[in-house]
Write a structure and sequence with these properties.
heterodimer, A: about 220 residues, Arc Repressor Mutant, subunit A, 5-stranded parallel beta sheet, 4-stranded antiparallel beta sheet, 12 strands, about 40% helix, B: Heat Shock Protein 90, 3 domains, 5-stranded antiparallel beta sheet, rod-shaped
Chain lengths: ~220, ~475
């Protein structure tokens, strides 16, 4: 994947780049919104990672400009501003996700990959398939190797999110944000308990565990 | 106060303006009354003259010049204060109480005129009196003049105008001095105000405007400004408090982190420690430091602003149900019985994320401090007062009554809780969130002690309804 990082803090940008490269991606760094626009125009990227506050052209203005010119590349905003209003402003300007500084590198990588994936599977799907696991979104049923699995509504949503991001790491914060739709710090790892319950339902009795824990990052559903 | 500067003062200018208006109005009224009275006097004189002329002509018609002459003499002596003159056809004076006719020449038919008489008044002084009269030519060629003086009307007018001018002069004087006093007073009030504003501008936020206790609008303004300054000062103090709190609260963990890194470095240099282990410990310490920083900042901001930044109206029942659903597995995993009782339709106005955090904190505490085999219950209901109450009740060791206020303070952790992970900020944040929503936090004893459990703790968040 090619990722454009638009960030005026050179050190932070380099650290991001190293993290992305270590996960097998390529990255280009632009020091502000104006350079960012230029880079975005010169070549294709899979995801833009854009800092909100920069000299010259700020992140919001840059993304608004890109969207006006028809560029639909997913945008992950980075910001030191974490209030709900700031988040809403970022999403309104055309951002697809919002990450508040300071963040863990693993969180950034997971979100970038999730955004790129979302772009690939743009079409509306009614059945999700990962390995021998199958989810029918209309009948709201889940089967693994032909065997029906009974899930609670939230477990269903959780598995749907994991299946849509199969093969990628998803963090606990991402799950709380995208599945429960809450932005707060749950103190203890309540998400882990939900995952382990889901795991016992989809992996118990099968020879291979699909739902894996990624150390230091979160979870990954593997085919 | 110089005259020039006096004229720049609003109250004085208003006084002068109103005096001018009053004077113009008085003059207009006076002129109108004067003209109207003069006209009325003239009309009355005319009517009297015509009535007398008619009567005298009738006498002349029946009894001739001699009869008229007789009648005129009778009238002059009989108390008629009219003016009469009978002249012969050639213009010679025949009889009457006028020496000469005010009518010039010998016009044909009728002629009338206004004229002045000089008479001695009651005090013996000579005064001029306006009179009006008409002369008619009788059938025998004699001319009869009848006139009326308008002295009574004139005297009334003179008294009226004297009175009015006197009143106007008095009003003018009173108004002027009143305006001056008013200007002075306003000036004094404004001076106090200006002094205070000047002081604040120079950076003295303690400056206040002294109240004169008069309850007037200047006092009201002063009071408003004083309140504004109070609030401003409070905000500044809060801001300073935020800075102080953060500095104070982060110094300890930063110092600890630094010490850990330093000792790790020494160990690694000596070839003993594991660098990866040291780094990952440092990383997780940094994370918890950042978490602490964010929480302290959030508490300080909530306390400073006294309200949350993102207020929306939403159903707290949904929020409580979500939180119960989120925390139930964690409670059960620990071997706790978990129950949630959530009433439907609890509309409140607030910040959803902050309230979620507050509920998460009290649930997290309840689960953390209740030993396996115990129970945790979340309730959300509307009290009879209309307030929305969230409460988490546990069967853990509870918090002794005299410690309950203390555990709300930042970084306060009870002795027996130190073995559990935590920063000592959880309940402080809950309190800040509750208060920022105009609510309160309450700590009470739980269900009581039984079989080695308890007495438990009940933490309630009370919020005003939307």
């Amino acid at each position: 994947m090619r990722i454009l990082i638009v960030e005026d803090d050179v050190e932070a940008a380099e650290a991001m780049c190293r993290g992305l490269v270590a996960s097998g991606h390529q990255c280009v760094v632009a020091a502000d919104g104006a350079y960012g626009l230029k880079e975005a125009g010169d070549s294709d990227f899979d995801v833009y990672v854009v800092d909100r506050m920069m000299p010259r052209l700020d992140g919001l203005a840059m993304v608004e400009t890109l969207r006006r010119t028809g560029d639909q590349t997913p945008v992950l905003f980075l910001s030191a501003l974490g209030e709900v209003d700031d988040r809403v402003a970022g999403l309104k300007a055309g951002g697809d996700d919002y990450l508040v500084k300071p963040y863990a590198l693993s969180e950034l990588v997971a979100r970038v990959e999730a955004l790129a994936r979302r772009r690939e599977t743009g079409s509306v799907q009614t059945v999700l398939k990962v390995g021998d696991l199958e989810m029918d979104l209309i009948a709201r049923s889940v089967h693994r190797a032909g065997q029906e699995i009974d899930l609670q509504p939230r477990e269903f949503q959780l598995l749907e999110f994991l299946m849509r991001h199969a093969g990628q790491s998803v963090t606990r914060t991402m799950l709380l944000e995208k599945v429960w739709e809450y932005h707060f710090d749950p103190q203890t790892n309540v998400i882990d308990v939900h995952i382990s319950r889901l795991r016992s339902k989809i992996d118990k009795g099968f020879d291979r565990a699909m739902l894996q824990t990624v150390r230091g990052a979160g979870y990954r559903l593997e085919a | 106060m110089r005259i020039a500067s006096l004229f720049r003062r609003t109250p004085f200018r208003l006084t002068v303006l109103f005096l001018a208006l009053f004077t113009t109005a008085a003059a207009s009224v006076l002129t109108y009354v004067y003209l109207a009275s003069a006209h009325e006097a003239r009309v009355q004189a005319e009517q009297a003259v015509d009535a007398k002329l008619q009567a005298l002509r009738a006498i002349y018609a029946s009894r001739g010049v001699a009869g008229l002459n007789q009648a005129l003499i009778e009238r002059a002596t009989g108390g008629d204060d009219g003016l009469f003159l009978l002249r012969s056809a050639s213009g010679e004076r025949v009889t009457g109480n006028l020496e000469a006719s005010p009518i010039e020449g010998l016009p044909d038919g009728e002629a009338s005129t206004s004229f002045t008489l000089t008479e001695a008044n009651d005090a013996g002084r000579l005064v001029k009196i306006t009179a009006w009269g008409r002369e008619v030519r009788l059938s025998g060629g004699e001319r009869l003049f009848v006139g009326e003086d308008m002295a009574s009307g004139q005297a009334f007018l003179a008294r009226l105008s004297e009175g009015l001018w006197g009143a106007a002069a008095l009003v003018f004087l009173l108004g002027l001095s009143g305006g001056l006093i008013l200007s002075r007073q306003v000036e004094r009030g404004m001076a106090a105000l200006n002094t205070a504003v000047e002081a604040v501008r120079a950076g003295d936020l303690n400056a206040r405007i002294p109240l004169r206790k008069s309850g007037d609008e200047l006092d009201e303004l002063a009071q408003g400004l004083n309140l504004m300054l109070d609030r401003l000062q409070q905000s500044m103090a809060n801001l300073r408090h935020v800075g102080d709190a953060i500095a104070h609260d982060l110094r300890t963990p930063l110092t600890r982190l630094r010490a850990r890194l330093e000792s790790a470095l020494i160990e690694v240099e000596a070839g003993r420690g594991d660098p990866v282990q040291a780094l990952s410990t440092a990383l997780s310490e940094t994370d918890s430091l950042l978490k602490t920083f964010n929480t302290v900042l959030a508490i300080a901001r909530l306390q400073a602003a006294r309200e949350t930044p993102d207020k929306t109206v939403f159903d707290a029942a949904e929020l409580a149900a979500d939180m119960a659903e989120l925390y139930e597995p964690a409670a059960e995993d620990k071997g706790l019985e978990f129950a949630a009782e959530v009433e439907k339709g609890l509309m409140i106005q607030g910040d959803r994320a902050f309230l979620a955090q507050a509920l998460a904190n009290i649930l997290d505490n309840a689960i953390k401090y209740t030993p396996a085999g115990g129970a945790v219950m979340l309730r959300a209901r509307r009290r009879s007062t209309g307030e929305v109450e969230f409460s988490a009740t546990d069967t853990g060791p509870g918090v002794p009554r005299d410690e309950r206020a203390r555990v709300l303070q930042r970084f306060v952790r009870l002795e027996n809780s130190r073995s559990e992970p935590g920063s000592g900020l959880g309940l402080s944040l809950v309190q800040a969130v509750a208060e920022a929503h105009g609510g309160t936090i309450r700590l009470d004893e739980g269900p009581g002690a039984f079989g080695g459990y308890g007495p438990g703790l009940r933490v309630a968040i009370l919020l005003p309804p939307a």
